[in-house]
Backbone:
């Protein structure tokens, strides 16, 4: 077994030097959770080695969040301390770098909490993140950091130490730490994903139809929608890769042209609560019904934060050639699970995936951005041309275009 310290160091080097691409002289803001200190400290080491001016680490604890959800007044649960927003705004104004560590910190912390209360407090997610991303003023990346508590829910049949080792092995594999040069391995993978994105963009489809068990959804596109791999460039020309891992090609849909119904194929971990069996119906672009087998009210409450919360901001397609889907594992971490299967997102959309300024003005705006997974080998995806022709795009988890 490799030493966890070696894996932590490898993750940090990858996210600092490649994912967020931290530059000399930059301020780096890190958002993490209790239990992920080893990776956070390695990130500080790697950032200072690249010449970062200062590394600021904010650590959240879901056991503290539990006390808020249990005892705070109902009308206070949407409150966000202004200094949290000021930190993000300052990093944006400074053109700093941002890194977030993902993965459940304390899966048991929010058990027994009323779902409608959980959906109102989405911290550490901040509502201004979407604006900062669209302004392209920070180079940023999110990467998973394993903990023993997280490992126990992914591998419940193993002893705690065995589960943690297994999770570290899986994270190292899907983040390509086992490659001789992980950064180059990601560049190669991104080139493949980008080629698929370019092929879809060239067809200039009017809409995408997703159909399979429990799903028949038509998602309208802008005339200037373009498909991307997860590789961004800031206004200062800093290339960065916002998600590690990432196997998706995505675009921003027309939020007023979504109709049909869709069923989730994987559970959604939403800032401490796990939502299973999601089913959503859309009419005229809006989610008119949101149901789930478990914790549906948490999702409904989150989507009710503003008018854009019940409209789509993203559609992402994932083929079966990546490293996550073939594992057949539910990780209870959206960063990983969304790259195992095609997905859609309720809430804020990405300006960078739309070329025309008039179309950009119509991109969905919201305080939230909630991805949930709808893909499987049984899901068929068609592109619909402006003439009404249906063109196969994904079949049996493989590109058909």
Residues:
């Amino acid at each position: 077994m490799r030493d966890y310290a070696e894996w932590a160091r490898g993750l940090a080097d990858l996210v600092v030097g490649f994912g967020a691409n931290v530059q000399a002289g930059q301020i780096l803001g890190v958002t993490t959770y209790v239990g992920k200190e080893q990776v956070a400290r390695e990130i500080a080491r790697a950032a200072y080695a690249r010449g970062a001016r200062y590394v600021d680490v904010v650590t959240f604890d879901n056991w503290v969040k539990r006390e808020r959800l249990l005892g705070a007044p109902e009308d206070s649960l949407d409150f966000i301390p202004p200094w949290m927003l000021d930190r993000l705004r300052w990093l944006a104004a400074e053109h700093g770098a941002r890194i977030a560590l993902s993965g459940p910190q304390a899966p048991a912390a929010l058990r027994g909490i009323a779902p409608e209360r959980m959906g109102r407090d989405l911290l550490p997610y901040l509502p201004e993140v979407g604006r900062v991303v669209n302004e392209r003023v920070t180079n940023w990346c999110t990467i998973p950091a394993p903990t023993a508590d997280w490992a126990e829910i992914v591998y419940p049949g193993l002893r705690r130490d065995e589960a943690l080792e297994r999770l570290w092995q899986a994270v190292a594999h899907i983040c390509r730490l086992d490659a001789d040069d992980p950064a180059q391995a990601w560049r190669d993978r991104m080139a493949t994903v980008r080629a698929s994105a370019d092929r879809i963009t060239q067809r200039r489809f009017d809409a995408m139809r997703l159909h399979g068990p429990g799903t028949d959804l038509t998602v309208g596109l802008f005339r200037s929608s373009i498909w991307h791999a997860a590789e961004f460039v800031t206004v200062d020309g800093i290339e960065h890769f916002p998600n590690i891992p990432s196997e998706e090609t995505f675009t921003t849909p027309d939020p007023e042209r979504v109709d049909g119904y869709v069923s989730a194929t994987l559970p959604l971990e939403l800032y401490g609560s796990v939502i299973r069996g999601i089913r959503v119906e859309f009419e005229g672009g809006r989610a008119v019904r949101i149901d789930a087998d478990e914790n549906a009210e948490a999702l409904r409450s989150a989507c009710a934060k503003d008018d854009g919360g019940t409209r789509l901001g993203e559609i992402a397609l994932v083929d079966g050639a990546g490293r996550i889907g073939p594992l057949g594992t539910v990780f209870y971490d959206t960063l990983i699970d969304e790259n195992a299967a095609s997905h859609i997102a309720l809430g804020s959309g990405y300006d960078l995936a739309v070329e025309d300024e008039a179309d950009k003005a119509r991109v969905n705006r919201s305080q939230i951005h909630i991805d949930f997974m709808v893909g499987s080998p049984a899901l068929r995806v068609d592109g619909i041309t402006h003439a009404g022709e249906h063109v196969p795009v994904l079949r049996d988890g493989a590109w058909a275009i």
